[in-house]
Specification:
21% strand; 8-stranded antiparallel β-sheet
Length: 580
């Protein structure tokens, strides 16, 4: 990599530089630390795309870094896909700063290669982008979003021709083509007027929404008679300033759920996400306004989607009569149970439920009880989507997929997590249980009593900078070299090393192959149905530690989970502080 100061000088002297970026660089000309951070490295293209702070520089999201990424994607598609120019690429964007601009810039670069772009005329959810790729049979899709990151971020996600997030193998090839673009400031592009004149840009609108809504209506497990009834379920919904308002409200209307109260302060798109600390339904503070409205309307269920509408959070009243947000593991388990107990038993032959290796084992227990096989994937919904794609040729049937981080998929007409589908199914599930005189927390108790008291948790160790990254690598290497034999006094039965794709049965030291892509992750399967998994974050300077237990009561499970957490926290703290 050339010296960052040379790259900065190249940008600052480029006479056609975007005016806003030129002003930003001028204002920072005396701030060496800020300039170095913006130019010392290129914004990394990860397994799904690029994501970063908005601003000037090669380590920032701006029209030039986007153009470079699209240039690499265009060359990859032309070399690896058929009829790319005619099939084209579909592009959607969310409510963030610069999202519409980045979408247009993407179309301008694709057009310079003669590749047609199908661009949504206004903001749309990520699952609709996934649907549109399949519906229009495009060669790829681009989603401009930074999901639930802070307002100063934006991102660029790539979807393959199946409508799923690109696989690691696809990402590696795209990265190689991106690297062949030497100068991000001189990437070829056509102007918008030229694209339209040449027929290289078409605008998408309500027709795609309606096609999605038509498929959405078909996922219901309610009979037509129940679907047509008026329903006494009180619903509160917040799109958290994002993209889901239209599809969620129309979807509920199709199912005749009419008692819907909207958190109006959060209904309109807002790139500042001004009413929440974080627009993430995993963060319970995001439900503060929804809970206040829920109290006023005596709501049965509160629904919250993140800005690009691929994650769903749900809150219902607990035994104390207060609204409580269900964890991703809890909601996923409830959805799976509802779907399997309200489906035609004939579909269960060759049926598959898919979850990640750090998602609750309650899902497996529910699937087993219904004669449905569970498939585990690595963390990230791209792996679930890729597995569904394989079913197209294997004859297996997808019935549900979920991960602990609030991502769920009910029907495979979308190939990524879908908060709109999930909101529909969660609502009708809440209605079903209300007819039985139960809340979703009551329904969860039914599952616990039947399958065991499963409980999960997660903690993380933050180690910033290159030194922190090296330390995380050292810790993972030490744990791989000297794997744990017991944790909190509980014996380890199996050790799963995903970097070597190997599972070790501790009792007799036999070894099995794990049929998953390689990843720097270790999982320890314990006696008493417990487990611990260590995994460096792919997006943050953190070492994450996931836990799962199965006790004979809520109290017992909490004790087990706390014991695992304290033991691992102490062990990792000692490893961080040991002399090097």
């Amino acid at each position: 990599m050339e010296n960052w100061e040379n790259t900065y000088k190249k940008w600052s002297s480029f006479k056609h530089l975007d005016e806003s970026l030129k002003i930003e660089l001028h204002n920072k000309k005396d701030n060496k630390a800020a300039l170095e951070d913006a130019f010392y490295k290129e914004l990394a293209f990860g397994t799904g795309g690029i994501r970063g702070l908005l601003g000037a520089g090669i380590n920032r999201m701006n029209i030039y870094t986007v153009r470079k990424a699209v240039n690499g994607l265009a060359n990859y598609l032309l070399a690896n896909r058929v009829n790319v120019k005619d099939r084209g690429v579909v592009i959607a964007y969310d409510s963030r700063y610069m999202s519409p601009e980045f979408a247009i810039e993407s179309a301008k670069v694709l057009g310079s290669y003669g590749i047609k772009t199908h661009l949504f005329e206004s903001l749309r959810p990520t699952p609709l982008l996934s649907f549109a790729v399949r519906y229009l049979s495009t060669a790829a899709g681009i989603m401009i979003t930074a999901s639930h990151n802070p307002p100063e971020y934006n991102g660029f996600k790539v979807y393959n021709e199946n409508g799923g997030q690109i696989t690691p193998e696809e990402a590696d090839k795209i990265i190689d083509t991106i690297k062949q673009t030497e100068d991000e400031l001189t990437v070829p592009y056509l102007e918008k007027a030229d694209l339209e004149e040449k027929g290289l840009l078409s605008w998408l609108g309500i027709e795609l929404d309606n096609a999605y809504l038509s498929r959405l209506e078909q996922i219901t497990k309610m009979s037509s008679e129940v679907q047509e009834q008026e329903k006494d379920l009180q619903i509160v919904f917040t799109p958290l300033h994002g993209t889901s308002y239209h599809l969620v409200t129309k979807g509920l209307e199709q199912l005749n759920f009419t008692n819907v109260s909207i958190v109006e302060e959060q209904a309109k798109p807002d790139p500042e996400f001004s009413t929440v600390q974080s627009p993430n339904p995993e963060e319970h503070q995001a439900f503060k306004m929804a809970m206040e409205l829920g109290v006023n309307t005596n709501a049965d269920i509160l629904l919250g989607t993140d800005p690009d509408a691929d994650r769903l959070g749900v809150a219902v009243k607990n035994k104390a009569g207060e609204y409580q947000v269900l964890t991703g593991n809890q909601l996923g388990s409830l959805l799976l149970d509802y779907i399997l107990t309200h489906s035609d038993r004939k579909i269960y032959q060759n049926s598959r439920m898919i979850k990640t290796v750090v998602t609750t084992e309650l899902g497996r227990a529910i699937a087993d009880a219904n004669q449905v096989e569970t498939i585990d994937t690595l963390t990230g919904f791209k792996f679930i989507g890729d597995k569904i794609n394989q079913f197209d040729s294997t004859g297996e049937t997808f019935v549900f997929g979920f991960e602990e981080s609030y991502g769920y998929l009910i029907s495979s007409f979308v190939r990524d997590k879908d908060a709109v589908q999930s909101a529909m199914m969660a609502t009708e599930m809440a209605y079903y249980w209300k007819q039985q005189g139960k809340t979703l927390f009551d329904a969860l108790d039914v599952l616990y009593e039947k399958h065991g008291y499963y409980l999960e948790g997660m903690s993380s160790l933050t180690l910033k900078g290159k030194e922190g990254s090296d330390r995380i690598a050292t810790i993972m290497n030490e744990i791989r070299t000297n794997p744990l034999k017991e944790i909190a006094g509980i014996k380890v039965e199996k050790i799963e090393n995903y970097l070597s794709s190997e599972r070790i049965i501790v009792a007799d030291n036999t070894r099995e192959t794990i049929d998953l892509p390689k990843e720097n992750m270790m999982k320890f399967i314990l006696e008493q149905d417990g487990w611990v998994c260590l995994r460096p974050s792919g997006t943050e300077p953190k070492l994450k530690c996931y836990y799962g237990v199965r006790g004979n009561s809520h109290h017992h499970s909490k004790q087990l989970l706390q014991s695992l957490k304290e033991t691992m926290d102490q062990m990792l703290d000692e490893m961080v502080n040991q002399p090097r």
